[in-house]
Amino acid sequence: MEQIQLTGPHGPKPKKTTVSRLGVYAFLFSAAVFFCIPLYVMLITSLKGMPEIRLGELFSLPGDPSFAAWVKAWGEACSGVECNGIQTGFWNSVKITIPSVAISIILGSINGYALSFWRFKGSNLLFGLLLFGAFVPFQVVIFPLIIFLREVGLYGSLTGIILIHTIFGMPIMTLLFRNYFSSLPDELFKAARVDGANFWQIFFQIMMPLSIPVTVVAVILQTTGIWNDYLLGLIFAGRENLPMTVQLNNIVATTFGVREYNVNMAATILTALVPLAIYLLSGKYFVRGIAAGAVKG
C-alpha cells in the first residue's frame, strides 16, 4: 500500500517585516505616545511641589517626589466653600454607578432575551424604538426629564440620578444582549421548551451562564460611561450626591487662593483611576465579548 508523505508548505517564506507592517507599528506607536504624554505630564506634575512647577519645566522629572498633593486632593482640596477633597465625590460615584450598572444590565439582558426568543406581535417595532433611543442625544430630552422627576419627587436625589442612568443605558444594553442572544443556536431554546422550562428558568439556567462574555462588555461600557459622566450628574444628582467628575470640576475651577496645579493633576488622576483600572485589567475580555456576539451562529 502506497504511503502518502506529508510535506510542509511550499513557496517563498513570507517576509517578517514589510512596509505595511512597519506603517501599522508606526501608527500604533504614535497613537500610544499621543495618549500617554498627557498622562505622563499629569503624573509628574502631581509629584512636584509648586516652586518646582513654577520653573516651567513641563516634562522634567520631579527633583523631590512627594505625594502631598495626592493626600490634599483626596481629603483637603477645596471645591467652593467646602474643603473635603475629592473623596466625597468618589463615594457618591460609587453609590451612583453600582446600582445603575446592575439595574440597566439586568433590564437590558431580559429585554434582549425576550426580543430574541419570545417574539411577540410588535416586537420588531419595540426593538426599533429602543434602538432609536440608543442614538438620541440625551441633551434633547433633559428638560422633559427634569419636569418628570420634579413631578414624581425624585429630582435632585440619588434615586433620580440612578433612574436617569438606567433609562439612558437600557437601549444600548438591550441592543448588546439581543445581538448576542441572536447568535446562540435556536436549538438550545427549543430543547429547553420541550423539557418544560419556562421563561425565567431558560433565562437564568441557560442564557445567563452563556452570556458571561457579553455581560463583561456591558459592565465595562456602563461603568466607564456612568463614572465619566458629568452633565447628568450635575443636573440630576442634587447637591448631596454630586459625582466625582463634578467635584473635580469644582476643585479645578476654584478661583480663590493659589491655583495648585499639582493638586489639580492629582485629583484628575484619582478621578480617572477607576476607568483606567477597568480597561487595563479587563481589556482582553472586552474584545472577546464583542467578538463573541459579532457573528450570527
TrEMBL record:
A single BP term in Gene Ontology: transmembrane transport
UniProt keywords, alphabetically: Membrane, Transmembrane, Transmembrane helix, Transport
Major place of residence: membrane
Record keyword Transmembrane helix present: yes
Any GO CC annotation of this UniProt entry: plasma membrane
Signal peptide extent: none
Cellular compartment(s): Cell membrane
Membrane topology, from the record: Multi-pass membrane protein
InterPro entries per the UniProt record, alphabetical: MetI-like, MetI-like_sf
Residue ranges occupied by any ABC transmembrane type-1 domain in the UniProt entry: 90-282
Keyword Transport applies: yes
A Pfam family per the record: BPD_transp_1
Record-annotated membrane-spanning stretches: 22-43, 96-118, 125-148, 154-177, 198-221, 263-281
PANTHER family: ABC TRANSPORTER PERMEASE PROTEIN, GLUCOSE IMPORT SYSTEM PERMEASE PROTEIN GLCU
Recorded family membership: Belongs to the binding-protein-dependent transport system permease family.
Protein name stated in the entry: Carbohydrate ABC transporter membrane protein 2, CUT1 family
Organism: Marinomonas polaris DSM 16579
